[in-house]
Amino acid sequence: MVPILTSSILTHEGFAHAFSLRPADFSLTVSPGLRKKTIEELCAHAGMKSRRVEEAAQVHGARTLVVPSQRGADREADALFARGSVLEATGVGVRTADCVPILVGDSASGHVAAIHAGWKGLVAGVIEAAIGHFSNRDSLVCAIGPCIERDAFEVGEEVALALIEACETDSIVQIGPNNKPHVDLRRSAHIKLETLGVRKNAIEHVGGCTYRNNEHFFSFRRDKENAGRHLAVIETRNRRRTS
Questions:
Q1: Helix or strand or coil: residue 80?
Q2: Phi and psi (nearest 5°) for 12?
Q3: Distance of CA 152 to the CA centre of its chain
Q4: Residue 190 covered by a domain
């Protein structure tokens, strides 16, 4: 069974989802047969109706792939959006190994999104692009998954300044003991979600620091080319009836 973390708020709203943990590796370099089997195990453990997850070629940009309507089209994207349907359930997922995985569900419509937000994507506007596909921000629930946290994420001044400008606050940056800026990607994502109209109490933080916790997480900054990849997945849910 693939080990996972889940969000209480997404679970409460009926969204099958998961953030995978080590040792399950969803790198694209894993053999196709083994990767398919591991995805199926993840979906089963997450309680998803489908055993298939739509993914994209992630390029640290802001494009959102809409599935299934864009299935088979250009697959370069860092977020995926799927509409709730009574006909079939659609799972979408993103791979991470320090970047921020964000799972979003619309409790009214059943629509979902999976977002891969590294610092480049945060600056480019990947969260804005993905959330822009939802018509009602009041009904959104979001889970921000495991990522590299501030104390471990030392960056250059130009990166820190770009994120400060993107988030319109310097509260995301702290100067470390070596006089270098450290950026809080998790807080950056949270600020952007709130700015876009997601309710503060509808955003949950799941998991810990990928860099510091070698037992449960892969980290590209720590392990370089030897790092595996986590998969964060969420499945569409039927639209809820209104009286």
A1: strand
A2: -60, -35
A3: 19
A4: no
Gap between the Cα atoms of 144 and 189, Å rounded: 8
Amino acid at 119: W
Tens of pLDDT along 1-59?
899 999 999 999 999 999 999 999 999 999 999 999 999 999 999 999 998 899 999 99
195: amino acid identity, one letter: T
CATH number for the domain spanning 37: value is 3.60.140.10
* Token duo for residue 158: 């130009």
Classify strands 91-96 and 230-235 as parallel, antiparallel or unpaired: antiparallel
Judged by DSSP in three states, 176 sits in coil
Residues in contact with 179: Cβ distance below 8 Å, sequence separation at least 6, in sequence order: none
CA distance 141 to 203: 6
pLDDT tens by residue, 94-127: 999 999 999 999 999 999 999 999 999 999 999 9
**Eight-state DSSP code of residue 128:** H
| Consecutive H or E run containing 35 | helix 32-46
Q: At residue 69, does pLDDT exceed 80?
A: no
Range of the domain at 44: 4-147+199-235
Strands 173-175, 181-183: pairing is: antiparallel
pTM: 0.95
CB 82 within 8 A of CB 90: yes
